Amino acid sequence: MPKHRDYYEVLEISRDASAQEVKQAFRALARRHHPDLQPDNPTAAETFRVLREAYDVLSDDVQRYQYNRQLERAQATPGVSPQVFYVRGIEKVLMRDYAGAVEEFGRAIALNPRFVEAFLRRCDAYSQLGQDSKVLEDCQQVLQLQPECAQAYFFRGRARQRLGYIESAVQAYSKALMVQADYAQAFYYRGIAHYELKNRASAVNDWREYAELCRLRGDEAGYKLAIETLARASWLPLRLGSFSIRSLAISVRESYWDIVGVLRHLGRDPIGGLLPAYTGLNDRRAGRVGIGLGAIADLCFASGIGLGQSWELSLLQLLLLGAIPFAGIAGTSAIARSLARQAGSWTGDVFLAGAVLLPVGLLGLANGLALPNALMLILTAFVGSYGVLMLYSGCTQITNLSERAAALTVPLMGIVSGFCSYFVFATMHAT
Protein backbone atom coordinates (compact mmCIF):
# COMPACT_ATOMS: atom_id res chain seq x y z
CA MET A 1 0.00 0.00 0.00
CA PRO A 2 1.36 3.50 -0.76
CA LYS A 3 1.96 5.50 2.39
CA HIS A 4 0.42 8.73 1.08
CA ARG A 5 -2.75 6.81 0.26
CA ASP A 6 -4.00 8.18 -3.02
CA TYR A 7 -7.25 6.18 -3.04
CA TYR A 8 -6.96 5.42 -6.75
CA GLU A 9 -3.48 4.02 -6.25
CA VAL A 10 -4.68 2.07 -3.21
CA LEU A 11 -7.28 0.27 -5.34
CA GLU A 12 -4.90 0.13 -8.33
CA ILE A 13 -7.38 1.76 -10.70
CA SER A 14 -7.42 4.79 -12.98
CA ARG A 15 -9.23 8.00 -12.08
CA ASP A 16 -11.89 7.44 -14.71
CA ALA A 17 -12.71 3.95 -13.42
CA SER A 18 -16.41 3.13 -13.35
CA ALA A 19 -18.32 2.22 -10.20
CA GLN A 20 -18.27 -1.42 -11.29
CA GLU A 21 -14.49 -1.32 -11.76
CA VAL A 22 -14.09 0.21 -8.30
CA LYS A 23 -16.11 -2.62 -6.80
CA GLN A 24 -14.23 -5.34 -8.69
CA ALA A 25 -10.85 -3.88 -7.72
CA PHE A 26 -11.83 -3.72 -4.07
CA ARG A 27 -13.08 -7.30 -4.00
CA ALA A 28 -9.91 -8.62 -5.63
CA LEU A 29 -7.61 -6.73 -3.27
CA ALA A 30 -9.76 -7.51 -0.23
CA ARG A 31 -9.45 -11.23 -0.89
CA ARG A 32 -5.69 -10.84 -1.22
CA HIS A 33 -5.17 -8.73 1.92
CA HIS A 34 -7.95 -9.91 4.26
CA PRO A 35 -6.57 -10.31 7.85
CA ASP A 36 -8.21 -13.72 8.25
CA LEU A 37 -6.11 -15.02 5.36
CA GLN A 38 -2.89 -13.54 6.75
CA PRO A 39 -2.95 -14.21 10.52
CA ASP A 40 0.85 -13.84 10.77
CA ASN A 41 0.97 -10.48 8.99
CA PRO A 42 0.78 -7.65 11.58
CA THR A 43 0.01 -5.03 8.90
CA ALA A 44 -2.83 -6.95 7.25
CA ALA A 45 -5.57 -5.37 9.35
CA GLU A 46 -4.34 -1.83 8.62
CA THR A 47 -3.97 -2.60 4.92
CA PHE A 48 -7.50 -3.97 4.74
CA ARG A 49 -8.84 -0.92 6.61
CA VAL A 50 -7.19 1.41 4.10
CA LEU A 51 -8.70 -0.58 1.24
CA ARG A 52 -12.11 -0.30 2.83
CA GLU A 53 -11.67 3.44 3.38
CA ALA A 54 -10.70 3.96 -0.27
CA TYR A 55 -13.67 1.90 -1.45
CA ASP A 56 -16.14 3.79 0.77
CA VAL A 57 -15.02 7.12 -0.72
CA LEU A 58 -14.73 6.12 -4.38
CA SER A 59 -17.94 4.08 -4.47
CA ASP A 60 -20.02 7.05 -3.30
CA ASP A 61 -20.62 9.63 -6.06
CA VAL A 62 -20.73 12.64 -3.73
CA GLN A 63 -17.68 11.67 -1.69
CA ARG A 64 -15.76 10.77 -4.86
CA TYR A 65 -16.54 14.16 -6.41
CA GLN A 66 -15.37 15.99 -3.30
CA TYR A 67 -12.24 13.84 -3.09
CA ASN A 68 -11.40 14.49 -6.75
CA ARG A 69 -11.72 18.24 -6.23
CA GLN A 70 -9.42 18.15 -3.22
CA LEU A 71 -6.92 16.02 -5.13
CA GLU A 72 -6.94 18.37 -8.12
CA ARG A 73 -6.41 21.45 -5.96
CA ALA A 74 -3.58 19.81 -4.04
CA GLN A 75 -1.84 18.57 -7.17
CA ALA A 76 -2.11 21.99 -8.82
CA THR A 77 0.81 23.00 -6.58
CA PRO A 78 3.30 20.12 -6.93
CA GLY A 79 6.05 19.82 -4.37
CA VAL A 80 4.10 21.63 -1.65
CA SER A 81 3.77 19.67 1.58
CA PRO A 82 0.49 19.23 3.48
CA GLN A 83 1.93 21.33 6.32
CA VAL A 84 2.06 24.37 4.03
CA PHE A 85 -1.69 24.21 3.40
CA TYR A 86 -2.25 23.48 7.09
CA VAL A 87 -0.42 26.67 8.11
CA ARG A 88 -2.37 28.62 5.50
CA GLY A 89 -5.55 27.26 7.04
CA ILE A 90 -4.46 28.45 10.48
CA GLU A 91 -3.81 31.91 9.05
CA LYS A 92 -7.30 31.95 7.52
CA VAL A 93 -8.79 31.03 10.90
CA LEU A 94 -6.92 33.89 12.58
CA MET A 95 -8.43 36.23 9.97
CA ARG A 96 -11.88 34.68 10.64
CA ASP A 97 -12.02 33.53 7.02
CA TYR A 98 -13.48 30.15 7.94
CA ALA A 99 -14.58 29.26 4.41
CA GLY A 100 -11.03 29.87 3.19
CA ALA A 101 -9.68 27.82 6.10
CA VAL A 102 -11.88 24.89 5.08
CA GLU A 103 -10.40 25.03 1.58
CA GLU A 104 -6.80 25.07 2.84
CA PHE A 105 -7.31 22.26 5.35
CA GLY A 106 -9.02 20.28 2.59
CA ARG A 107 -5.92 20.62 0.41
CA ALA A 108 -3.72 19.41 3.26
CA ILE A 109 -6.00 16.42 3.76
CA ALA A 110 -5.99 15.61 0.04
CA LEU A 111 -2.20 15.32 0.18
CA ASN A 112 -2.24 13.42 3.46
CA PRO A 113 -5.58 11.72 4.26
CA ARG A 114 -4.19 10.74 7.70
CA PHE A 115 -3.57 14.36 8.74
CA VAL A 116 -5.62 14.26 11.95
CA GLU A 117 -4.80 17.84 13.02
CA ALA A 118 -6.04 19.17 9.68
CA PHE A 119 -9.31 17.26 10.11
CA LEU A 120 -9.74 18.69 13.62
CA ARG A 121 -9.00 22.23 12.50
CA ARG A 122 -11.47 21.83 9.66
CA CYS A 123 -14.03 20.60 12.20
CA ASP A 124 -13.56 23.85 14.08
CA ALA A 125 -13.90 25.92 10.89
CA TYR A 126 -17.04 24.03 9.83
CA SER A 127 -18.40 24.61 13.34
CA GLN A 128 -17.83 28.36 13.01
CA LEU A 129 -19.73 28.27 9.71
CA GLY A 130 -22.61 26.36 11.29
CA GLN A 131 -22.11 23.36 8.99
CA ASP A 132 -22.68 20.74 11.65
CA SER A 133 -23.23 17.84 9.26
CA LYS A 134 -19.74 18.48 7.86
CA VAL A 135 -18.37 18.55 11.41
CA LEU A 136 -19.84 15.12 12.05
CA GLU A 137 -18.37 13.74 8.81
CA ASP A 138 -14.88 14.94 9.72
CA CYS A 139 -15.22 13.63 13.27
CA GLN A 140 -16.04 10.22 11.86
CA GLN A 141 -12.92 10.35 9.68
CA VAL A 142 -10.74 11.32 12.65
CA LEU A 143 -12.12 8.55 14.84
CA GLN A 144 -11.40 5.99 12.13
CA LEU A 145 -7.80 7.16 12.11
CA GLN A 146 -7.48 7.78 15.85
CA PRO A 147 -10.30 6.10 17.84
CA GLU A 148 -9.26 7.67 21.15
CA CYS A 149 -9.24 11.31 20.03
CA ALA A 150 -10.94 13.37 22.74
CA GLN A 151 -11.20 16.47 20.58
CA ALA A 152 -13.11 14.60 17.88
CA TYR A 153 -15.66 13.42 20.45
CA PHE A 154 -15.91 16.99 21.74
CA PHE A 155 -16.63 18.41 18.26
CA ARG A 156 -19.13 15.59 17.71
CA GLY A 157 -20.89 16.62 20.91
CA ARG A 158 -21.01 20.30 19.91
CA ALA A 159 -22.45 19.46 16.48
CA ARG A 160 -25.06 17.09 17.89
CA GLN A 161 -26.03 19.61 20.55
CA ARG A 162 -26.60 22.36 17.99
CA LEU A 163 -28.62 19.95 15.85
CA GLY A 164 -30.86 19.26 18.83
CA TYR A 165 -29.66 15.74 19.69
CA ILE A 166 -28.92 16.59 23.30
CA GLU A 167 -28.72 13.09 24.80
CA SER A 168 -26.40 12.02 22.01
CA ALA A 169 -24.29 15.11 22.68
CA VAL A 170 -23.97 14.15 26.35
CA GLN A 171 -22.69 10.73 25.29
CA ALA A 172 -20.08 12.32 23.01
CA TYR A 173 -18.87 14.70 25.75
CA SER A 174 -18.71 11.80 28.21
CA LYS A 175 -16.59 9.81 25.77
CA ALA A 176 -14.25 12.78 25.38
CA LEU A 177 -13.87 12.93 29.17
CA MET A 178 -13.21 9.19 29.35
CA VAL A 179 -10.30 9.71 26.97
CA GLN A 180 -9.11 12.96 28.57
CA ALA A 181 -10.33 13.43 32.13
CA ASP A 182 -9.25 17.09 32.38
CA TYR A 183 -10.95 18.28 29.17
CA ALA A 184 -12.38 21.53 30.57
CA GLN A 185 -14.54 22.54 27.59
CA ALA A 186 -16.19 19.11 27.53
CA PHE A 187 -17.26 19.60 31.16
CA TYR A 188 -18.69 23.04 30.39
CA TYR A 189 -20.74 22.05 27.35
CA ARG A 190 -21.86 18.76 28.87
CA GLY A 191 -23.16 20.87 31.73
CA ILE A 192 -25.16 22.95 29.26
CA ALA A 193 -26.53 19.78 27.66
CA HIS A 194 -27.51 18.38 31.08
CA TYR A 195 -29.23 21.66 31.90
CA GLU A 196 -31.20 21.54 28.63
CA LEU A 197 -32.29 18.02 29.61
CA LYS A 198 -33.43 19.39 33.02
CA ASN A 199 -30.66 17.45 34.81
CA ARG A 200 -29.76 20.42 36.97
CA ALA A 201 -27.65 18.54 39.52
CA SER A 202 -25.50 16.97 36.81
CA ALA A 203 -25.13 20.34 35.10
CA VAL A 204 -23.98 22.02 38.30
CA ASN A 205 -21.45 19.24 38.95
CA ASP A 206 -19.98 19.63 35.46
CA TRP A 207 -19.73 23.40 35.78
CA ARG A 208 -18.01 23.05 39.13
CA GLU A 209 -15.47 20.70 37.56
CA TYR A 210 -14.97 23.23 34.78
CA ALA A 211 -14.47 26.04 37.31
CA GLU A 212 -11.91 24.03 39.27
CA LEU A 213 -9.93 23.14 36.14
CA CYS A 214 -9.91 26.80 35.06
CA ARG A 215 -8.78 27.87 38.53
CA LEU A 216 -5.90 25.38 38.55
CA ARG A 217 -4.78 26.52 35.10
CA GLY A 218 -5.02 30.22 35.89
CA ASP A 219 -7.74 30.70 33.26
CA GLU A 220 -9.46 33.76 34.72
CA ALA A 221 -11.92 34.21 31.84
CA GLY A 222 -13.00 30.56 32.01
CA TYR A 223 -13.32 30.67 35.79
CA LYS A 224 -15.46 33.82 35.57
CA LEU A 225 -17.66 32.15 32.94
CA ALA A 226 -18.12 29.12 35.20
CA ILE A 227 -19.11 31.24 38.20
CA GLU A 228 -21.55 33.30 36.12
CA THR A 229 -23.07 30.14 34.65
CA LEU A 230 -23.51 28.61 38.09
CA ALA A 231 -25.10 31.83 39.32
CA ARG A 232 -27.59 31.87 36.44
CA ALA A 233 -28.47 28.23 37.06
CA SER A 234 -29.06 28.67 40.78
CA TRP A 235 -32.57 28.86 42.16
CA LEU A 236 -32.11 32.52 43.18
CA PRO A 237 -29.69 33.96 40.62
CA LEU A 238 -30.48 37.60 41.41
CA ARG A 239 -28.43 39.04 44.25
CA LEU A 240 -29.13 42.72 44.78
CA GLY A 241 -26.14 43.02 47.08
CA SER A 242 -23.79 42.23 44.22
CA PHE A 243 -25.00 45.18 42.13
CA SER A 244 -22.58 48.03 41.56
CA ILE A 245 -22.11 50.88 39.12
CA ARG A 246 -18.79 49.36 38.08
CA SER A 247 -20.37 46.00 37.22
CA LEU A 248 -23.10 47.80 35.28
CA ALA A 249 -20.50 49.77 33.32
CA ILE A 250 -18.58 46.58 32.54
CA SER A 251 -21.77 44.90 31.32
CA VAL A 252 -22.68 47.86 29.12
CA ARG A 253 -19.20 48.00 27.59
CA GLU A 254 -19.20 44.23 27.02
CA SER A 255 -22.63 44.39 25.37
CA TYR A 256 -21.51 47.25 23.14
CA TRP A 257 -18.58 45.30 21.75
CA ASP A 258 -20.71 42.16 21.44
CA ILE A 259 -23.24 44.10 19.35
CA VAL A 260 -20.44 45.50 17.19
CA GLY A 261 -19.11 41.97 16.64
CA VAL A 262 -22.54 40.63 15.72
CA LEU A 263 -23.11 43.51 13.28
CA ARG A 264 -19.81 42.67 11.60
CA HIS A 265 -20.91 39.04 11.20
CA LEU A 266 -24.29 40.04 9.78
CA GLY A 267 -22.78 42.76 7.62
CA ARG A 268 -20.50 40.25 5.90
CA ASP A 269 -23.15 37.55 5.58
CA PRO A 270 -26.68 38.32 6.84
CA ILE A 271 -27.80 34.70 6.49
CA GLY A 272 -24.73 32.54 7.03
CA GLY A 273 -23.34 34.84 9.72
CA LEU A 274 -26.34 34.45 12.02
CA LEU A 275 -25.34 31.16 13.67
CA PRO A 276 -21.61 31.98 14.09
CA ALA A 277 -22.59 35.31 15.64
CA TYR A 278 -24.90 33.56 18.11
CA THR A 279 -22.66 30.64 19.03
CA GLY A 280 -19.79 33.04 19.70
CA LEU A 281 -21.69 34.34 22.75
CA ASN A 282 -22.82 32.69 25.95
CA ASP A 283 -26.51 32.80 26.91
CA ARG A 284 -26.26 35.95 29.01
CA ARG A 285 -24.40 37.92 26.36
CA ALA A 286 -26.62 36.63 23.53
CA GLY A 287 -29.70 37.77 25.45
CA ARG A 288 -28.22 41.23 25.97
CA VAL A 289 -27.28 41.52 22.31
CA GLY A 290 -30.78 40.49 21.21
CA ILE A 291 -32.39 43.06 23.49
CA GLY A 292 -29.86 45.68 22.40
CA LEU A 293 -30.51 45.08 18.70
CA GLY A 294 -34.25 45.17 19.37
CA ALA A 295 -33.91 48.48 21.23
CA ILE A 296 -31.89 50.00 18.38
CA ALA A 297 -34.50 48.82 15.88
CA ASP A 298 -37.28 50.27 18.04
CA LEU A 299 -35.55 53.66 18.33
CA CYS A 300 -34.95 53.78 14.57
CA PHE A 301 -38.58 52.90 13.89
CA ALA A 302 -39.93 55.52 16.32
CA SER A 303 -37.53 58.16 14.98
CA GLY A 304 -38.52 57.44 11.40
CA ILE A 305 -42.22 57.70 12.13
CA GLY A 306 -41.63 60.82 14.21
CA LEU A 307 -39.68 62.48 11.39
CA GLY A 308 -42.37 61.61 8.91
CA GLN A 309 -45.10 62.87 11.28
CA SER A 310 -47.52 60.54 9.55
CA TRP A 311 -49.15 59.30 12.78
CA GLU A 312 -50.31 61.44 15.70
CA LEU A 313 -48.74 59.34 18.44
CA SER A 314 -46.41 60.23 21.29
CA LEU A 315 -42.82 59.00 21.39
CA LEU A 316 -43.71 56.57 24.18
CA GLN A 317 -46.56 55.15 22.11
CA LEU A 318 -44.29 54.78 19.09
CA LEU A 319 -41.69 52.95 21.17
CA LEU A 320 -44.35 50.63 22.55
CA LEU A 321 -45.70 49.98 19.07
CA GLY A 322 -42.21 49.24 17.77
CA ALA A 323 -41.62 46.71 20.55
CA ILE A 324 -44.65 44.61 19.56
CA PRO A 325 -42.97 42.82 16.59
CA PHE A 326 -39.98 42.01 18.81
CA ALA A 327 -42.23 40.35 21.37
CA GLY A 328 -44.24 38.65 18.61
CA ILE A 329 -41.23 37.06 16.91
CA ALA A 330 -39.52 36.02 20.15
CA GLY A 331 -42.77 34.66 21.61
CA THR A 332 -43.71 32.73 18.47
CA SER A 333 -40.20 31.27 18.32
CA ALA A 334 -40.40 30.14 21.95
CA ILE A 335 -43.84 28.57 21.47
CA ALA A 336 -42.79 26.77 18.27
CA ARG A 337 -39.66 25.47 19.98
CA SER A 338 -41.73 24.24 22.91
CA LEU A 339 -44.30 22.51 20.70
CA ALA A 340 -41.56 20.85 18.66
CA ARG A 341 -39.83 19.83 21.91
CA GLN A 342 -36.54 21.27 20.73
CA ALA A 343 -33.78 22.24 23.13
CA GLY A 344 -32.85 25.88 23.29
CA SER A 345 -33.36 28.94 25.43
CA TRP A 346 -35.19 32.24 25.44
CA THR A 347 -31.91 33.98 24.64
CA GLY A 348 -31.91 32.38 21.19
CA ASP A 349 -35.48 33.58 20.60
CA VAL A 350 -34.57 37.11 21.70
CA PHE A 351 -31.34 37.14 19.68
CA LEU A 352 -33.19 36.07 16.53
CA ALA A 353 -35.90 38.72 17.00
CA GLY A 354 -33.38 41.51 17.52
CA ALA A 355 -31.20 40.49 14.56
CA VAL A 356 -34.16 40.29 12.17
CA LEU A 357 -35.83 43.54 13.27
CA LEU A 358 -32.72 45.73 13.11
CA PRO A 359 -32.86 46.17 9.30
CA VAL A 360 -36.63 46.70 9.58
CA GLY A 361 -36.04 49.52 12.08
CA LEU A 362 -33.42 51.06 9.80
CA LEU A 363 -35.94 50.88 6.96
CA GLY A 364 -38.42 52.82 9.12
CA LEU A 365 -35.76 55.46 9.77
CA ALA A 366 -35.02 55.71 6.05
CA ASN A 367 -38.72 56.22 5.40
CA GLY A 368 -38.75 59.16 7.82
CA LEU A 369 -35.89 60.77 5.89
CA ALA A 370 -38.19 61.03 2.85
CA LEU A 371 -35.98 59.10 0.46
CA PRO A 372 -37.13 58.74 -3.17
CA ASN A 373 -39.97 56.26 -3.64
CA ALA A 374 -37.97 54.11 -6.07
CA LEU A 375 -35.12 53.77 -3.58
CA MET A 376 -37.52 52.95 -0.75
CA LEU A 377 -39.12 50.26 -2.90
CA ILE A 378 -35.72 48.66 -3.54
CA LEU A 379 -34.75 48.86 0.14
CA THR A 380 -38.09 47.37 1.19
CA ALA A 381 -37.63 44.44 -1.20
CA PHE A 382 -34.14 43.75 0.12
CA VAL A 383 -35.12 44.07 3.79
CA GLY A 384 -38.20 41.89 3.32
CA SER A 385 -36.28 39.17 1.48
CA TYR A 386 -33.40 39.12 3.92
CA GLY A 387 -35.82 39.20 6.85
CA VAL A 388 -37.60 36.06 5.68
CA LEU A 389 -34.32 34.26 4.98
CA MET A 390 -32.87 35.27 8.35
CA LEU A 391 -35.99 34.07 10.16
CA TYR A 392 -35.86 30.72 8.37
CA SER A 393 -32.13 30.34 8.99
CA GLY A 394 -32.56 31.27 12.66
CA CYS A 395 -35.45 28.85 13.14
CA THR A 396 -33.47 25.91 11.73
CA GLN A 397 -30.05 26.74 13.22
CA ILE A 398 -30.69 28.61 16.48
CA THR A 399 -34.16 27.41 17.48
CA ASN A 400 -33.32 23.93 16.09
CA LEU A 401 -36.66 23.51 14.31
CA SER A 402 -36.93 21.12 11.40
CA GLU A 403 -37.15 22.65 7.92
CA ARG A 404 -40.83 21.75 7.74
CA ALA A 405 -41.58 23.33 11.12
CA ALA A 406 -39.54 26.42 10.22
CA ALA A 407 -41.47 26.85 6.96
CA LEU A 408 -44.67 27.03 9.02
CA THR A 409 -43.26 29.11 11.87
CA VAL A 410 -41.82 31.95 9.75
CA PRO A 411 -45.16 33.10 8.25
CA LEU A 412 -46.79 32.66 11.67
CA MET A 413 -44.22 35.07 13.11
CA GLY A 414 -45.24 37.65 10.52
CA ILE A 415 -48.95 37.08 11.10
CA VAL A 416 -48.70 37.26 14.89
CA SER A 417 -46.46 40.34 14.84
CA GLY A 418 -48.59 42.12 12.24
CA PHE A 419 -51.90 41.37 13.94
CA CYS A 420 -50.68 42.40 17.39
CA SER A 421 -49.14 45.59 16.01
CA TYR A 422 -52.36 46.50 14.21
CA PHE A 423 -54.44 45.79 17.31
CA VAL A 424 -52.22 47.98 19.50
CA PHE A 425 -52.15 50.73 16.87
CA ALA A 426 -55.94 50.70 16.52
CA THR A 427 -56.32 50.84 20.30
CA MET A 428 -53.95 53.81 20.54
CA HIS A 429 -55.81 55.69 17.82
CA ALA A 430 -59.15 54.96 19.41
CA THR A 431 -58.01 56.55 22.65
From TrEMBL:
SUPFAM superfamilies: Chaperone J-domain (SSF46565), TPR-like (SSF48452)
Domain J, chain residue ranges per copy: 6-71
Extent of the TPR repeats: 82-115, 150-183
Bilayer-spanning residue ranges: 289-309, 315-336, 348-368, 374-393, 405-425
Keyword line: Membrane, Repeat, TPR repeat, Transmembrane, Transmembrane helix
Matches recorded under Pfam families: DnaJ, TPR_8
Entry annotated with the keyword Transmembrane: yes
UniProt KW Transmembrane helix keyword: yes
Protein name stated in the entry: DnaJ-class molecular chaperone with C-terminal Zn finger domain protein
Phylogenetic lineage: Bacteria, Bacillati, Cyanobacteriota, Cyanophyceae, Oscillatoriophycideae
